[in-house]
C-alpha cells in the first residue's frame, strides 16, 4: 500500500504532507515507552536495540525540518517521550551504552539532528534531569570510535545537536572528525567514502549532504565551510547527470534501500544556499526524483518502507539493513526547513535537458550518456573490499542504468542461470564463475575507459568500454592458461506474462524485446560468439523488476589470448530497436585499442585502496 498514492508531490505543502504520510504507518509499531520502533524481522548484524532505535530516529530527518519550516506535525509528544525514555538509564527502553564501534553512533546523528531542527519540541519542554540524560547519552556516543569513512560525520552531528541546545562539550572530537573527513577529498568535488575506491551515492547523500548542513550551521569555521560549499558546487555539475528526465537516479553501489536519499544532495544545496545550478534546475532534479519514488508502490501491505528498492527484496540488502534502515531516505526532506519565500520554493521546476554530450569523470572512472529514455554510466574503478553482499554486482559491472537498474547474481554455481547483466562471466566448469570485482589498473580517455583485472591467478583481462551512444562497445583481451567458458550479458529488462515480443533472427545479435523495453547485444568478436536470450534468470535478482530477460553472448576460450568484442544498448521504447540495429557501431581493431590505452590518463580514484576487511 503506497501511502503517497493520493499526493501529487508538487507544492511545499504536498511534500510536507508526504513526510507525515510516510511516517504514519510506523505509529502502531512504537514501543510502550515510545523510544523504539519494532518492525519485526528480518535482522541486521547489529543488536535489536540498535535496529529498533533506527526505526525511531531515522524519520526525524524528515520530520524535524517541519518545525524549522513552521509546518504542522501532531505527534511530537511521541518523539519527546522517546527522547526522555531512550536516554534514561533507569528506563527499560534505554538505548544503552556500548564498547567499541556500534550502530548507535550512526543513530546519534539523527538524535542530534532532531535537536538542531526541532529544539522547541524535543528539548525545551524537558525537565533539567531529562535534558541532562539526553546530553549525557550524546556525549557518551562522542567518546566511541567510528568507522573510518562517512561515519565521522555522526560525531559532527552529535556535537552540533549538543551545541544547538547550549550544552558545553569537548569540541576536539568534532574537529578531529572534520579534519579526517577532508583527507578523503580527491578532486573536482569528489570525495571517497574513506580510503576506498567507492564513488557511489554515499558521496552525495553523506559526504556532501552533511558537509552542506555543517556549512550553514557551524560557527567560527568559515574557511572549512567555504570549502564544503565550493566542493558541492563542483560536484553538482557531474551529479546532475546521474538522473534521467523522468527523475530516476542511477542505481549503483551499496545501500540502495535508502531510495530517495538520492535526492538529498539537492536538498542540501538548497539548505546551504548554494546555487550550484539555477534554482529551477535544482528544484526539478529534487522534485522529479521524489515523484519517481512517490509513484511506485514498493511498500509493505501496511505502508511501511521495506528493505529493497523498486519492490521488497532481500537479495540486494546489506548486512547493516534492519527493517528500520530504509527511513534514511527521509534526509531528502531537508528542503522543508526552508521557508516558502526561499528561492528553491519560489523557482518553477525546470525540465532536465539532455544535450547528447558525454559526461566524463576522471576521478570516479565513469562515462555517462543518454540512450533513449535510459541514462547509462560506464564504470571502471569502483570496488567494494568489504565483507558485504554483491560487491561485483554493485560496483564491478561495465554499465549501470537509470531505466533498468542492475541485478544480483544469487547462485554461486549459477553460470548457466544468473543474470550477469552488463558483466562478463568466466567459468572453468560451467557452474562456478569469475566476474570483474577488483581492479589492478584503470585509465580514462576522451570517450573510453580501460581497466585491467585479474579474477584468478592464471587469468588476466583487459577491458575497454567505449561510449557510442546509444550503444556502448566492450572489448576484452582475455589471457588464460586453461580453457574457459564465457557469457556476457546486456541490460536486464522486465519479464511479464506476455513474454518476449521478439528475439530476432540474426545469429550474432541477441534481441530481448518486449512490449515495454528493448535490450540488445551484438557480437563483434573476431571469433564469433553465440547470441542467446536468458528468458528466465533467477527471479527477484533485479533491483527494478521481479522477473527479467537478459540478452547474452556465449563463447569458449582456449588457452592463450582471445579478443571478445560486442556492442550493447537498451531502451524504454521498443520501437528504437530496429533503428539501433541498423546502426550497430563498427568494432575497433586490437591495434587501435592498445594505442588508445597507451595514450589515456590514470583514473584519479585509484589513489585510494581499502584494505580487504573481514567480519569481526
From TrEMBL:
Name recorded for this polypeptide: DUF2264 domain-containing protein
Lineage: Bacteria, Pseudomonadati, Pseudomonadota, Alphaproteobacteria, Rhodobacterales
Species in which this protein is naturally found: Halovulum marinum
Pfam families xrefs: DUF2264, DUF2264_C
Domain DUF2264: 11-351, 369-588
